[in-house]
Amino acid sequence: MPLSAIRTVAKPQNGVGAFILQCKKLEFHYCDWAGSSRGMNAFIKTNLSAFAKRNPSIEISVSPRPRKHPVIRAHYINGNQRSICVRNMSNDIVKEKAELLRDASGEKNQKYSKPVTSINESVRGIWSPFHGAKIQI
Amino acid sequence: MKRIPFSRCATQRLASSTPRRPSCIHNVAPHNHRIQWQARLQTTVATPNDGIAEMMAEVEEVPAPESTSKFPSRSPSRKPLPLEHLPSPHPRAAAQSIKLAALRSRLSLPERFPLQSLARTLVHPSADADPAFNNASLSILGANLLGYYTTEYLLCNYPRLPMDVVFAAHDAYIGPKALALIAREWGIETAAAPGGEVDPGLLQFKRLRPGSDLPAALQRQLPWKWEKTTTHKIVNTDEFGSNVKPASAHALQGTPVPVEEAAQSFVRALIGSLQLHLGTPLVKRFFRDHFLSRQLDLSSLFDFRVPTRDLSRLCAREGFEPPVARLISETGRLSRHPVFVVGIYSGKDKLGEGAGSSLQEAKIRAAAAALKAWYLYKPLEVTVPSSTENELHPKNWKPNMVDCGEVIV
């Protein structure tokens, strides 16, 4: 055989071509009795149906969690979970938190030191000492 | 649409064959491929009256799953079966499933793609042996479509690609591993065990228990000597260059399978189902968005053995002057880490260039670069054959370049 081939798998690029929202499930836990759930209960009553309609790709479940603080828990495609305790928060802030969880990628928070990361090769290429003008020392 | 005379039903009810499905004696429900998901409780072996029954006949020899043995005897006063006795979720449950609706929306599929079909693509033959309710037939269609679109993309865009690299590129885009990965990226969750009461939005398959061997149909078989040729791989087996023909999708009925196998059958079946419901243009767009948009560097797939020999054979074949390696620049020849830059020239044309820590290494790299430059040639304007489908007189068709093939040494 003059040549053989190396077997790999093509790398995914979410957003190039198709975009898949990484949040797949949102759970809203509330308490009927406790005061810390007041904002959450208002959100569930007024805003949740519109939120669900705007985000049809997210599975939404609402369940009581008696005598506990209200929690929004998000499940992501990569298998991670992320939850936010929304105690004593008003209706609008609960909505903001739900949107924050919806937009998250599910990856752990990490610091990116480089402004750009790419899987494509640099267009300019790597500097080479053997090309270009000869420098006379 | 066909009506069954009551008397005919009655005589057939006397047949000794055991029912694989609960049958209804008032079996006058319309049997039609398009609405077969509605008629789950009406499909029986005893009343073959259309294509579904014919399809079921071929799996009659397969032993019925354990759950079917619990079917009560046929009596006119039969109640609908409890859901736990069905091998896979009832199609009626699909409309209520949140997971299915979310999945359809996540994949940006239009509303006219029915949830019942989406639910059927999630049922692997290992969960439900009935071909009218599992995804085997859809996945065969989907595998063919995926192979067709990938092949025409690769062969039209890179006409000089060697056959091994074509196989590897297919494997990278639509191979078993790639499809299993794609299913995971779509957020497919698996059911712990298949059954009628399970949410239809979960992938239904019979799990392979940890530590147990793969089913015989999925095990790698050693090829015969005549099966090792490239011609055999092109003509007789799959598009990934396997030596042995892969098992049919129908062959895995009732056998436990690994998750990857079930996940890839789902992706294939989804493509087949999209083709049937939404038509070719949408499938092509879906394929472009979800499969071709993935990043694959074709130049990293090449693995040359003796590139210098290949290059001189190529130059002889194409009538170029024989390739000559010349040193372009060097540094630190006597040091611990010298670098040489070598170019390969054919006459006055530089074919390739490579850098290495020895003259030999740099020459080999330069020859490999020259060969890649030849093999990865890409025509500027390409029309793929499928772009002229459904057109009587395609106007914008331009014949594609066909190359005589890789160098044979």
Automatic annotation (TrEMBL), chain A:
<protein>
    <recommendedName>
        <fullName>Large ribosomal subunit protein mL43</fullName>
    </recommendedName>
</protein>
<dbReference type="GO" id="GO:0005762">
    <property type="term" value="C:mitochondrial large ribosomal subunit"/>
</dbReference>
<dbReference type="GO" id="GO:0003735">
    <property type="term" value="F:structural constituent of ribosome"/>
</dbReference>
<dbReference type="Pfam" id="PF05047">
    <property type="entry name" value="L51_S25_CI-B8"/>
</dbReference>
<dbReference type="InterPro" id="IPR036249">
    <property type="entry name" value="Thioredoxin-like_sf"/>
</dbReference>
<dbReference type="InterPro" id="IPR039927">
    <property type="entry name" value="Ribosomal_mL43"/>
</dbReference>
<dbReference type="GO" id="GO:0032543">
    <property type="term" value="P:mitochondrial translation"/>
</dbReference>
<keyword id="KW-0496">Mitochondrion</keyword>
<keyword id="KW-0689">Ribosomal protein</keyword>
<feature type="domain" description="Ribosomal protein/NADH dehydrogenase">
    <location>
        <begin position="32"/>
        <end position="105"/>
    </location>
</feature>
<dbReference type="InterPro" id="IPR007741">
    <property type="entry name" value="Ribosomal_mL43/mS25/NADH_DH"/>
</dbReference>
<keyword id="KW-0687">Ribonucleoprotein</keyword>
<comment type="similarity">
    <text>Belongs to the mitochondrion-specific ribosomal protein mL43 family.</text>
</comment>
UniProtKB/TrEMBL annotation, chain B:
<feature type="region of interest" description="Disordered">
    <location>
        <begin position="1"/>
        <end position="23"/>
    </location>
</feature>
<protein>
    <recommendedName>
        <fullName>Large ribosomal subunit protein mL44</fullName>
    </recommendedName>
</protein>
<dbReference type="GO" id="GO:0006396">
    <property type="term" value="P:RNA processing"/>
</dbReference>
<dbReference type="Pfam" id="PF22892">
    <property type="entry name" value="DSRM_MRPL44"/>
</dbReference>
<keyword id="KW-0694">RNA-binding</keyword>
<feature type="compositionally biased region" description="Low complexity">
    <location>
        <begin position="64"/>
        <end position="86"/>
    </location>
</feature>
<dbReference type="GO" id="GO:0003735">
    <property type="term" value="F:structural constituent of ribosome"/>
</dbReference>
<keyword id="KW-0496">Mitochondrion</keyword>
<feature type="domain" description="RNase III">
    <location>
        <begin position="100"/>
        <end position="188"/>
    </location>
</feature>
<feature type="region of interest" description="Disordered">
    <location>
        <begin position="61"/>
        <end position="90"/>
    </location>
</feature>
<dbReference type="InterPro" id="IPR036389">
    <property type="entry name" value="RNase_III_sf"/>
</dbReference>
<dbReference type="InterPro" id="IPR014720">
    <property type="entry name" value="dsRBD_dom"/>
</dbReference>
<keyword id="KW-0687">Ribonucleoprotein</keyword>
<dbReference type="GO" id="GO:0005739">
    <property type="term" value="C:mitochondrion"/>
</dbReference>
<feature type="domain" description="DRBM">
    <location>
        <begin position="306"/>
        <end position="376"/>
    </location>
</feature>
<feature type="compositionally biased region" description="Polar residues">
    <location>
        <begin position="9"/>
        <end position="20"/>
    </location>
</feature>
<dbReference type="GO" id="GO:0004525">
    <property type="term" value="F:ribonuclease III activity"/>
</dbReference>
<dbReference type="InterPro" id="IPR044444">
    <property type="entry name" value="Ribosomal_mL44_DSRM_metazoa"/>
</dbReference>
<dbReference type="GO" id="GO:0003725">
    <property type="term" value="F:double-stranded RNA binding"/>
</dbReference>
<keyword id="KW-0689">Ribosomal protein</keyword>
<dbReference type="InterPro" id="IPR044443">
    <property type="entry name" value="Ribosomal_mL44_DSRM_fung"/>
</dbReference>
<dbReference type="InterPro" id="IPR000999">
    <property type="entry name" value="RNase_III_dom"/>
</dbReference>
